[in-house]
Amino acid sequence: MDRTGFLSLISPEGQALLAEVGEIDSKADMVKIVSKLRGKGHSAELVATVLTQVKLRRRAKAKFGEFSEGMFFTEDGLEQASRLKVAAIHAGRFRANGLDRIADLGCGIGAETLAFASLDMDVTAYELDEVTAAIATYNLARFENVKVEQADVTKLNLEEFDGLFIDPARRDLSDSKTNINKRKYDINDFSPSFEFVLEVAKLKPTIVKLGPGMDHKDIPDDAEAVWVSDDGDLVELTLYFGQVKRPDIKRAALLLTPTGTHEITSAASERLDAPMGDLGKYIYEPDAAIIRSHLVGDLAMQLELNIFSNEIAYLSCDKEVTSPWLKGYEVIENLVFDRKKLKAYLREKKIGTLEIKKRGADITPEQLRRELDPRGPESATLIVTRVDGAHRVLVVKPVANSQD
Length: 404
Fold this sequence. Notes:
With 404 residues, this protein is α/β, with parallel strands linked by helices. The chain has a nine-stranded mixed beta sheet with strand order 3-2-1-4-7-9-8-10-11, with helices on both faces. It has three domains: 3-60; 78-266, 3-Layer(aba) Sandwich (Rossmann fold), CATH 3.40.50; 282-399. It is built from 13 helices and 17 strands. α1 crosses α4 and α6 crosses α7.
């Protein structure tokens, strides 16, 4: 959204049109809606801006709940914005350590600041982009304890603050051919730079939000690193420095579920390898936060599980295990990975609905499904992986193994 688009949204005409369109069912015929609105005399530019905003608000409900109805968004701002439940965890670290004056360095549309302000912290939110700063000001207008400023965070004096929060830009929107957001995992591409992030982290207690794909070698030794999964969706890596860092914890996987919060921690930077063993009656897929945090071995030791092929993050045993960290499957068949024989097997079993999972195998599930051309009334789940180093296809049945 550019400056003109934002000004049109906050105009009386834009606000009225936004309220009108916001009540339209998401499955409605958008072509007819556009024609109707244009027929009422609204400009094509305003109609397009309003419809885009309505779509963004609907998508934002997954992150912001009912707050989304009164907020403005940009495409990339919504992509990078924290989910409120995760932002609340960051706010809780500041609050638990008695830190009340917080600087949000690169606030985007204001998700983190909203969480901090909700816990009565005094927040100054900085944003370099003019339109994004204006959107953040609009979204945070209800809070008297928030101030939004357009500024280059690398040129600020941060002495007045108790704690700092930084969410460096990690997406590149420069691909005009696809216009697809690309996540940045190269620390040299962060904005502000990772070097700046580390420098300010030496000055004040600091929380840094990063993409979960960051290489472990780039994680500073003086940081606590936490990979966060929201009900199985790996959403971020958080680094904690100084006073907000927990003592004796180097790495952690944090899982948020509708029924509770779960965490596994390690005091070591080096990973613990899971024991090697045979493929048992059950196979378990760890949550992505466990895999990215290199805590597969720790989880395996806790639950008496083993891997069955080097560097493949599937666990196994002969008993059914209950854990919120695992998706479990009972192994029905252990087949050679031969496309012709596999196709014949599916025909014999009358399998038409097919879920294909893979790890450690150079296949594309969608392409393999087309090649197998499953037909029939039955369904099945296949796991294409390596067992003792050899490619195999495991026909499996999901088991209920998540605890409350």
